[in-house]
Write a structure and sequence with these properties.
The protein has about 525 residues and is of the alpha+beta class. It contains 14 helices and 18 strands. Helix content is about 45%, strand content about 20%. The strands form 5 sheets. Strands 2-6-7-1-5-4-3 form a 7-stranded antiparallel beta sheet. Strands 10-9-8-11-14 form a 5-stranded mixed beta sheet. A two-stranded antiparallel ribbon has the order 12-13. Helix 13 crosses helix 14. The chain starts with 7 loop residues before the first strand and ends in an 11-residue tail after the last helix.
Length: about 525
């Protein structure tokens, strides 16, 4: 029986650095990028040898066939076959050196030449990261193991507080391979008290993290401590039903109903991001004219090294800093909304959403039902049936991060003794159900309201109301509870709309005002 995961919490402190120390950190990140890419190159070679092993491929095909069998046809003998095939495939992987221990052993030799920059455990941690990507490629949905450029390395990992980066709580300094660096406490008094209280716990390990700002890289130590984080919130005792959307969350609890937009100010960063991307593209074209035709199209197969100007690098740093600001804003907005929900409730019932699938383009290419008139280059008009757009919700989820919101809610609810219960979406079908008529009817996404028992209800809030009143099976609403609490829901919905109008909150996509 596996041991339960130990509870951890994290404190991040900025490192006070000089110009020399920043150059030293840059060297260490360069060393880390080289070590990582050396391991990726070797891992690719080992995977190629494994994939050319015909015996392994036959076993893998047999294992996949057993996995695709219907559940009712799976017998104990089939389970034994699956376990035997799995053990044999694991032995084959170890034969070709595809294991976490083999990766760490191989990278130890490469890490010795950087022993003045990286500790042995930091090199081992990077080997483990490469092995995680190999596992995702072999057993998950990974399609490729990628090399990483230097600028994409933002963290140097650790494994303990006795090797590599070591933090001293008394002096609030980090020690790393003979060098010491002071850390800064937050200026805000409440944040400082929280950090000092959190640092009283036992330190598991420390990571070094860097973030891009307009004036360059800022370096932080991320201290991972054992035990729960300090509790600063007063948590309610009620139950809230949540209907998660792509850009909004509809919530209905014992006392109130709310429909709020996730990270409402994230859109303001997009125009500045597009402008910087256009500047980078224009600079790249000016510096590499031989790679483009006169009409501006790229010449495929062009050889040689790209040339970039100093202006290109400056704009690239500004773009990375802007992405960091957008991420920080989204996380802070999520944190505030989660604190409001926890102040009202301790238990949350949520519809389970597959946001990764919603972000991807549709695989089906279908033509539209209505005809369109197009004009060709000669000026002739003809009637065609255009293809439907395959795009889904990737752009919205890039700005809103609804999956991160629900993950953070689950973590913080668990910290305060609460729970997040996920209902079965396909069986529940909250958006289609009418508790008064006890029927299900599919309605288009453009229709944001419907009539239930003679009353007009907003579809997202009503879905959250049904989710909150689920039965014990989590497959269907409890009709008796719905009838008993429906008048209270109508009052909360009316209060929610009036409050939004008083605060001049416009949400036409949901309410029409």
């Amino acid at each position: 029986m596996a041991k339960p995961a130990q509870e951890m919490h994290v404190v991040r402190l900025r490192i006070q650095t000089t110009e020399y120390e920043e150059s030293l950190f840059a060297k260490r990140f360069h060393a880390l990028s080289h070590v990582h890419n050396v391991m990726v190159k070797q891992a690719k070679k080992r995977i190629i040898r494994l994939e050319h092993d015909h015996e392994h491929q036959e076993m893998r095909a047999a294992y996949v066939r057993l996995l695709k069998l219907p559940k009712e046809s799976v017998t104990p003998d089939i389970e034994k076959q699956k376990k035997a095939l799995s053990r044999q495939m694991n032995r084959n992987c170890q034969k070709y050196g595809i294991s976490e221990y083999d990766f760490q052993k191989y990278l130890a030799a490469c890490g010795r030449q950087y022993r003045t920059l990286l500790s042995s455990q930091q090199v081992q941690k990077e080997a483990s990261r490469v092995f995680r990507s190999v596992e995702h490629y072999l057993y998950g949905k990974g399609k490729e193991i990628h090399f990483k450029p230097y600028r994409n390395f933002n963290t140097i990992g650790g494994k303990s507080n006795r090797n590599g980066i070591r933090f001293d709580p008394k002096s609030r300094m980090i020690r790393w391979l003979g060098d010491t660096f002071p850390c800064l406490l937050p200026k805000d008094r409440a944040s400082r008290d929280y950090v000092l209280e959190a640092l009283n716990a036992d330190i598991a390990y420390c990571d070094l993290k860097r973030l891009m700002f307009p004036n360059g890289w800022h370096y932080y130590v991320v201290i991972v401590l054992r035990g729960p984080a300090p509790r600063k919130l007063t948590v309610g005792t009620g139950t809230t039903g949540i209907d998660p959307g792509v850009s909004t969350m509809a919530c209905v609890s014992d006392e109130q109903a709310s429909l709020f937009e996730l990270a409402p100010g994230a859109k303001k960063y997009n125009p500045a991001i597009r402008k910087l991307q256009q500047q980078m593209e224009a600079s790249k074209r000016l510096s590499n004219p031989d790679r483009y035709r006169a009409d501006g199209t790229y010449i495929k197969g062009s050889q040689g090294q790209w040339t970039f100007s100093k202006r290109y690098f400056r704009v690239r740093d500004r773009l990375k800093s802007l992405y960091r600001q957008k991420t920080a804003y989204t996380q802070d907005s999520h944190r505030q909304q989660i604190n409001r929900l926890l102040a009202d409730s301790r238990t949350f019932i949520v519809e389970d959403m597959n946001y990764l699938a919603l972000a991807k383009k549709s695989k089906n290419t279908i033509r539209q039902d209505h005809p369109s008139i197009v004009t060709d280059k000669k000026g002739c008009q003809r009637v065609v049936y255009k293809y439907r757009r395959r795009k889904r919700f990737g752009k919205s989820m890039n700005s809103r991060s609804p999956g991160a919101f629900l993950s953070r809610l689950e973590e913080k609810a668990a910290l305060y003794g609460g729970t997040v219960i996920r209902i079965h979406t396909k069986e529940f079908r909250a958006s289609q159900y009418d508790h008064a008529a006890d029927t299900r009817q599919r309605i288009p996404l453009t229709q944001r309201s419907k009539i239930v028992d003679g009353h007009k209800v907003q579809r997202d809030l009503y879905s959250a109301f049904l989710i909150r009143n689920t039965d014990d099976s989590l497959n269907h609403p409890d009709r008796e509870k719905c009838f008993a609490e429906f008048p209270g829901f109508l009052r909360m919905q009316r209060t929610c709309i009036d409050t939004m109008k008083q605060n001049h909150q416009s949400m036409p996509q949901c309410f029409g005002f």
